[in-house]
Prior knowledge:
Elements: H1 8-35, H2 46-52, H3 54-59, H4 63-81, E1 87-88, E2 91-92, H5 93-120, H6 125-136, H7 138-146, H8 149-153, H9 159-166, H10 173-191, H11 211-214, E3 222-228, H12 233-247, E4 253-259, H13 267-277, H14 281-290, H15 296-305, H16 310-318, H17 320-335, E5 343-346, E6 349-352, H18 361-429
Parallel strand pairs: 3-4
Antiparallel strand pairs: 1-2, 3-5, 5-6
Amino acid sequence: MKIREIPRVWLFTAIRLLSLSALFFASMLAVDYYFVAHTFCEEGASCAVVAQSDFGQKYGIFLPTLGLLAYSFFFLTSFFFTKTRLRLFKQPLTTFWLPLAIICCAVGAMLFVVVQALEIHAFCWLCMGIDTSAMIMVIPAVLLMLQRRKDLESVECDAGKAAEISRVSILHPAVWCAIYFAVACGPIAYGTTEKTAPEPKNEAGEIVVPEYIQSFYVPGKINVVEISSFECPHCRQLHPELTKLLLTYGERINFTRLTIPLRGHKEACVAYYCAEKQKKASEFAECQFEQPSTETGKILEYARECSINEDAFKACLVDPASLAAVDDILKNIQDTGFEGAPTIWIDQTKIVGYNKKLGMDPYKAALDKKSASVNDATNATRAAHIVTLIGLILGVICLGCGIVASVRRKGEKEIAGKESTEDKSEDQTA
């Protein structure tokens, strides 16, 4: 088959598929740049190197948007340009301006690959996915440029080949649009759904929060882990102030208390563990912080005040598994490099001891810093979910329209076929 006889539907299908490929990578890049960092590219990896380079700092923020807009344009206009005979400066949109735009975009992609190789010395695999798709797209673009409508119209071929050449799309455009929304919104939906707890790291990429402490963290929350003792006077001074401060942040706080004994008396720790099993930990802690005790009688009195099931509580106190669980907690705390009580972890911030002169300022500063980042992440995630929802709705609508149109088109072809057959039979009869 000669170049000028290649059906346009093949060339435009290639452009659409490559546009979707580039869109998929651009959407993933958008998640990392605008919504949840290091979702598709790990921190410290080549993508992060490109993003943190001088080029990435100056222009990187525009790359995902530029990719989404450019390849959405190529994809969507491919349906319009296949039917139009409009010209701009005496050149057809179909076989000149659209291919020229694709070639210019591919040149830009090639230049960015060179920049990554010679200046940044690292390759972002997401960017490379976009750039590779753009450069391959040059092939159908050049083939379109080599074609001219008048040449196609002069091709001597049978009616079947002429129909094949003039076809707009293999699939109904509405079905293509449904695929477009799925490809563009899929990575955003996946990337903005947090699945695991964060791993706070320092500038060197090292995890600064012990793994055991991280095990209590919840994504999207301000995580506070308190290591304290009911018998510790500094812990008792801090407790009411910290409780009051955390209340001002409401449901944004994910709070965990780990208790340790003083002088080897584990009775209060075991009792707190048993109260926690009945979801009465906060109430029991209030009693212990107000008047700490390791005596069984007093502990049972606190249990009754907190409406704890006494029989189950007593059974838990004497159960060897309870003491073993407390010992395991204490071992894990020691393994974190525990320095003394109280120790408060507020995400990446560790505050040891309680300084009356400073009061709650260090705690508030850490909470406000994390609160700002949580709010930013929440707003970005909310925006991503809105985009995804709109894309999903439009995709479903397009898919439904495409199916209905395809069924109707098939029915019309069947009717036309029957009429053609009847006309032939009438002619033969005549």
